[in-house]
Input
Amino acid sequence: MLRLEKLTKTYKTGDMALKGIDLDVPSGQVLALIGPSGAGKSTMIRCINRLVEPTSGAVMLDGTDLTGFGSGALRRARREMGMIFQEYALVERLTVMENVLSGRLGYVGFWRSFLRRYPQKDVDEAFRLLDRVGLLHMADKRADELSGGQRQRVGICRALIQQPKLLLVDEPTASLDPKTSRQIMRLICELCAERGLAAIINIHDVALAQMFVPRVVGLRFGEIVYDGGPTGLTPDKLTEIYGKEDWEATIQKDDAESDPEVTIKSAPAPDAEAGKPEAAE
Ligand SMILES: Nc1ncnc2c1ncn2[C@@H]1O[C@H](COP(=O)(O)OP(=O)(O)OP(=O)(O)O)[C@@H](O)[C@H]1O
Output
């Protein structure tokens, strides 16, 4: 569904953030992108929907390269890719419902959204999504009245109402406490499984990634140095990705595996097994 081919990004400052990334993501597969600060994770996510312009290489979505698209074609392609941000990126003075509906911008056009005249089917879908994430009763609240976890749920609804095929998720839990982080990761992975959605989740918390996703990609200095299952992230592999550290204290413990809340990765989305590579050596 998504294929990155020799993707590179060199910023004007000379920083080579991505050095020839090759990556295949089959439809329905959820993967976590890990790596130290500055490894290129955000750059990679943003090159996929061209919030950052790649320097060279291809971003193939369903067989079509997005890198050459003009603004109209890019706008249509971006409908297929919902984005979820660390800082939620909500419009604070708008209501929860209005924020969710703003996810339809790519479909309804500027004036209709500016006048907040969305088709009834979009409003119905927004209510359904808010109900699914437990925020139906908050539809009329202003975004600035919500907690961080609630804001992220609104961000998730806004991405999903686009009806995307792929979610690009940039540090969704970095501003949240551990319990809320786990709830949000669980919700994202559940929704992907329910909707057959692929996702690339940039996440700093290795243990959280290990709990929920069937595939982890490790970046270091703009290159993929790990691509495999969560259990293959041994202390040696983590040292290769991040450098020396006491990994026994960081990686997933056996008791987390038996936690009844943590069920997502044992139920991968359609096609996930087919596209899941073995751990890179
Ligand atoms: N707008 C920019 N201009 C110049 N250099 C940039 C820009 N954005 C990122 N970089 C550089 O590109 C490299 C990759 O940065 P990026 O933010 O993608 O890494 P990251 O893995 O997401 O880091 P973090 O986990 O800290 O967010 C870094 O060397 C960074 O300094």
The longest strand covers residues 16-25. The chain has two domains: 1-80+166-281, 86-163. The pocket of adenosine-5'-triphosphate is lined by residues 11, 13, 15, 17, 35, 37-43 (CB under 6 Å).
